[in-house]
């Protein structure tokens, strides 16, 4: 006869006991916790006092800012157009703003599961990017042409980021598949290309494509400096992302591809329906990380003469009227980057939980 075992229910610790066990388990831990909490509260209060209590708001409050003890947010309300639109003509800045909204909508729609398809997602990004470019460039429906030399601010940052992702992701897939080729000369050549580019700093690649490349290419092939930099950045992105994808492919059980071959599936069907979907799932955390890094590193283009959001921020506080409010402008630019990067990071964490990635 089976012995009856009484059913026991696990007792969850209270929040107070968990807090005590985690931060006040010993006198030393308690002292460290109190000191760190005191310093953190002091820093938060000092930041709140500077940014809110003694800050100056409103447009054109230069004299009040000079006499104030806190932040001068008046520079942001007076010069925000420079930060967001750069050198774009004032009367046409609505086009730049609308283009940014279109690109933001594309990024938001990419988060919807309905678009997670090999056809829908590329079509969404290509259509959104084409709309973005046409709005920025003009030349149709009576819109005057605005050349790339007059682009700047947040719109230029989004343009570079979107172009790099659209060019770099297909290249990364091709590079990863070529490196796994069964022909040794193809695999080794691709490995040499990837490792060479990954060993170079991004800034050196940008300088090469922006300045050196016109000296070695025929005039009809050089193109605009902006597009050369985008191609170089996309190549850099593709090499890093190719290794991420290759790692996701190597994590797959070998039997899956062998079973697909036994069923008579061709190479492209095996890659498109079995290998790549699971590889992207396995490589989701580093892929999100690579996209976040790509967005942040668009600020490097300011070193080679582009008027991106960082350069626009410096220009906004570079006049004699507002040259004392540099910190406030940089805080505003940092907030723009924070909104985009934090949103991407949180969405990546949501996808990891949804797909149950990284818990095995």
From TrEMBL:
Its main location: membrane. One of its GO terms (cellular component) is ATP-binding cassette (ABC) transporter complex. Pfam families: BPD_transp_1 (PF00528). This is ABC transporter permease. GO terms for molecular function: transmembrane transporter activity. The chain crosses the membrane at residues 28-48, 94-116, 123-146, 158-178, 199-220, 322-344. One of its GO terms (biological process) is amino acid transport. The keyword Membrane applies.
